[in-house]
Design brief:
Layout lengths: L7 H19 L1 H6 L9 H29 E5 L14 E5 L5 E2 L19 E2 L9 E5 L7 E8 L4 E5 L2 E4 L2 E2 L21 E3 L4 E5 L9 H4 L2 E2 L3 E10 L5 E2 L3 H7 L2
Antiparallel strand pairs: 1-2, 2-13, 3-4, 5-6, 5-13, 6-11, 7-8, 7-10, 8-9, 11-12, 13-14
């Protein structure tokens, strides 16, 4: 880590002068007989030290910013597909490190203890889990980030009948879903079930009637996942965790 600027030359010149100043106050006669001290130029050394400290501080700030941004990033919700859990214009913090994906041929593969994605690649900590609210790059809209809830992971059979969601034959309890507040979004109702393949996720918006999700464009590749939404921090009245994440995860354990 870069340190703050520290000029040892200045330290050694300041300390003797401080001692001499105290001697002058306690012994006026000795002070009067002492020859006047020559003035020491200060402009250039002081300016150089200040400039170096400024540069080092700026570099340290940039390094901290880059490191933090690599782990946590802020996102703004745009749309109503996650209502009532998340409202449009809410600001979220997304943990990007929790799903760090490690290729099977990477030297870090031996350190990755977070489980597999079904293709042989592993996760440094753990893979996306059912109930997690995730941010990902939309497979049908490259370059644009979506936010949805994970419903199915590799190997799961997801079925939707009369708006009820079943995972591996068990009806999913979803207390975070409210009443319909928007018009229905068109999706392929002719396909009521999906078997999640290796390396993929099945995701749904909490506002099912107004969400473009896996019902319309199938699965999310795990390499598209940006991170896990963990905290809402604006507006202040909604400061806290993402609704439903803990409840839904516990339901499957």
């Amino acid at each position: 880590m870069l340190g703050l600027g520290y000029n040892t030359r200045d330290t050694h010149t300041i300390k003797p002068r401080y001692c001499e100043l105290r001697q002058e106050q306690t012994d006026p006669a000795a002070s009067a007989s002492a020859p006047p001290e020559a003035a020491e130029p200060r402009g250039k050394p002081g300016a150089h030290s200040w400039a170096r400290e400024l540069v080092e501080t700026l570099l340290l700030t940039v390094l901290i910013f880059v490191a933090v941004r690599g782990v946590v990033q802020s996102f703004r919700v745009d749309g109503e597909s996650m209502m009532p859990s998340l409202q449009s214009e809410e600001l979220l913090l997304v943990n990007k490190a929790v799903y760090w994906h490690v290729n099977s041929d990477s030297p870090l593969a031996r350190l990755a203890r977070g489980g597999s994605d079904g293709t042989g690649d592993r996760f440094l900590f753990h893979p996306p889990e059912k109930g997690d609210v995730i941010v990902f790059e939309a497979p049908m809209d490259r370059g644009r980030d979506y936010i949805k809830r994970v419903i199915g992971v590799p190997g799961d059979l997801v079925e939707i009948h009369d708006e009820a969601v079943f995972v591996n034959g068990e009806r999913l309890k979803e207390p975070y879903i409210g009443q319909r507040t928007t018009e229905a979004f068109a999706f392929d109702a002719r396909k009521p079930e999906w078997r999640v393949p290796p390396g993929k996720l099945f995701v749904l918006g909490d506002n099912r009637s107004a969400s473009s999700d896996s019902r319309a464009w199938n699965f999310v590749p795990m390499e598209n996942v940006v991170g896990k939404a963990t905290v809402t921090y604006w507006p202040a009245s909604k400061l806290g965790g993402i609704p439903g994440s803990v409840l839904l995860s516990a339901h499957w354990r």
